[in-house]
Amino acid sequence: MTHSWPEPPALAGAGLALGYGGKPVVEDAELTLHAGAVTVLIGPNGSGKSTLLRSLARLHPLAAGEVSLSGQDARALSAKEFARKVTLLTQSRPTPGGVRVRDVVGYGRHPYRGRFGSGDPEGAQLVERAMRHTGVDGMAERPVDELSGGELQRVWLATCFAQDTGVVLLDEPTTFLDLRYQIETLDLVRDLADEHGVAVGVVLHDLDQAAAVADEAVLLSRGAVRAAGRPADVLTAELLSEVYGLRIDVHVDDEGHVRTRPVGRHTTRSRPVQHA
Question: The whole model's pTM is what?
Answer without folding.
Answer: 0.89
